Amino acid sequence: METEDFAADAALFARMRRMWEDVDPVPADLVDRMVAAVAVEDLSREYALLTLVEGTLAAVRGESDTATLQFSDGTTSVLVHVTATEGGGRRVDGWVDATALAIRLIQADHEWATDPGEHGRFAFDEVTPGVARLRLVVRDADGALRDFQTPQFEV
Fold first, then answer.
1. Hey, which of 4, 23, 28, 73 has its CA 20 to 30 A from 108?
2. Number of structural domains the chain divides into
């Protein structure tokens, strides 16, 4: 009896699907529009997270190769200061205003991890120049753990 019920249900659902395809077909460009809408929303979120606080880039590497960036999602804020090192790498100093349990700096081929120091301070030495992002595990005011991830930025 169950097989007959299943076959009857499948036939009913097939008729309903055909009816809705005739009455209200899916627009041909719906998938493309949805992909574009999601991409724009993600860009808007990343733009809202990233604020260039200050930055100077000299034509020659030196002490003036610095950038200061601030990231915030409305609950957690991270301030990052990037400077060039004598060895051609970068030093990334940062401060987070939430209770951070873990902090990682991620590049395509490498990852650095550090524990937050007193008052949310952290640093990464001799980071390879290139695109990176920070990923933190923070504890909210209510005690819940959550992941905070910055947009990509140039180190």
1. 73
2. 2
pLDDT of residue 43: 59
CA dist 114 and 134 (Å) reads 11
pTM of the predicted model over 0.70: no
> Is residue 78 classed as helix, strand or coil in its secondary structure?
strand
Joined tokens for residue 120: 């949310």
Q: b vs e for 82-112, b when ≥16 Cβ sit within 10 Å of the residue's Cβ? A: bebeeeebbbbebbbebebeebbbbbeeeeb
Question: Beta partners for 100?
Answer: 138
Characterize the bridge pairing of strands 99-106 and 131-139: antiparallel
Quick one: DSSP state of residue 43? H
**Phi, psi dihedral angles at 132 (to 5 degrees):** -145, 170
CATH assignment of the domain containing 118 = 2.60.40
Q: How many Å is the maximal CA-CA distance in the chain?
A: 81
Residue 71: other Cβ atoms inside 10 A: 24
Handedness of CA 106, 125, 114, 76 (dihedral sign): negative
Predicted confidence (pLDDT) per residue in 48-72, tens digit: 555 545 544 444 444 457 889 999 8
Q: What is the DSSP letter of 120?
A: G
